[in-house]
Amino acid sequence: MTNADLHIRRETAISMVINTVLSGVFFLAVFGLHGPVPIWGMGHYVFDFGPQAFAVAFMSTLVPGALSRKALRAGRVASRPSALRLPGNLLLRGLILAVPSAMLALAGAAAVCLALGLAQLPWSVALAAKLGFGAVLALVITPIALRATLAEALG
C-alpha cells in the first residue's frame, strides 16, 4: 500500500468520525432529545436528508482536500494518478459532489420511507440511521475527493 493510499484511508476514517458526530449534533438540534420523529414535511426526517447529505459531502471534500494539498506541498504525502477528473477549485469540487449527494439522499430516504409506509420513527432508530448515513456518505465521498486532490500534482 502506497503512502497516498494510507493517507486516503486515514483521512477517510477521520472524516467518517467527524461527520458522524456532526450528524448527531445536527439531529439533536433539529429533532430534540426524545419523542417520535415525524417523517414527512418541511424540516422533518426525510427532508433533513438533503441538507445533511449536502453538508457531509461538501465538508468531506473541502476539509480533507485542503489538508491534503498542504501535506502534498510539505512532502508528507505523495501524489497518485486518478482516472477521475474533478475541478481543481475545492469549493466547486465540493458543490459538484454535494449537490447530487443531497438529491440522491433525499430521493432515497423518501423512497425507503414511502415503501415502508412510515409516518414517524422512534427517536433512537431515527438517530441511529442518521449517524450511519453520515458515516457511510463520508466513506464514499472522502476517497473520491482525495483521489482527485492527490492527482492534481500530476497535472
From TrEMBL:
TM annotation in the entry: 12-33, 53-69, 90-119, 125-146
Highest taxon of the lineage: Bacteria
Keywords assigned by UniProt, alphabetized: Membrane, Transmembrane, Transmembrane helix
Name of the protein described by the UniProt record: Tripartite tricarboxylate transporter TctB family protein
Species whose genome carries this gene: Novosphingobium capsulatum
